[in-house]
Amino acid sequence: MYYAKLDNFNQDYEIVNCELEQVAKEAVKAHAKSFISRKVRVQLDIPPAVTVQSDKKWLSFIVSQLVSNSLKYSGASGEITISALATQEEKRLIIRDNGIGIEAKDLPRIFNRGFTGANGRSHATSTGMGLYLAQELSKKLGHYLTCESAVGNYTEFTIHFPRNADPHLQTVRRHDFAD
Q: How far apart are CA 173 and CA 143, in angstroms?
């Protein structure tokens, strides 16, 4: 459904002020049963009133997708930390888990449509569409995603909210995600 909506995205979004703490709490609440059943701890480290310009529904989808991935690849008794950071150039929402990590050879392709990589091939529910959709929606909103990971140690997804991006002009800075 979300993939089908990508083509008509410009007809279904509204840029408003979104509080990152509220968006993160809603994503955690939506996945509460998984956090509990897997005994995964969550730590929120987002200062109150950190706002970004975005579409609340689509930003919530993106954050939920990243939390879902962190849960899927975190072991029992794992931990997921959601934090925020502001610099002169941008605000960032960071979702970090202490799960299985992503192989270095797979990192440059994780946002490609249909790519599942070594981890996805070992999990039958992986379609390779979640991160692709999250990245495409992010770009349409004037944001972008990056990922850092170390196998057996952690995975950290960051949603970047550039201060000078205007999603209405579609002049989003392009970045090489293979860094």
A: 9
Among 88, 105, 103, 82, which Cα is nearest to 158's? 82
- Collapse the DSSP code of 60 into the 3-class scheme (helix H, G, I; strand E, B; otherwise coil) and give the result: helix
Q: Contact 17/51 with Cβ under 8 angstroms?
A: yes
Q: Distance (Å, rounded) from C-alpha 96 to C-alpha 12?
A: 30
Distance CA 111, CA 87 (A): 25
Task: Say which residue the tokens 């495409």 belong to.
Answer: 136
- Write the DSSP symbol of residue 10: G
pTM: 0.85
Dist CA 136 CA 122 (whole Å): 25
Q: How many helices (H) and strands (E) does the chain have?
A: 6, 7
DSSP code of residue 119: H
- pLDDT tens digit at each of 179 positions of the chain: 444 455 555 667 899 999 999 999 999 999 999 999 999 999 999 998 899 999 999 999 999 999 999 999 898 789 999 999 999 999 999 999 999 999 999 999 999 998 887 766 565 567 789 999 999 999 999 999 999 999 999 999 999 999 876 555 443 333 433 33
Cα angle, residue 64 at apex, residues 30 and 11 outer, rounded to 5°: 110
The H or E element spanning position 121 is helix 117-121
Apex 130 CA angle, 61 and 140, nearest 5: 60
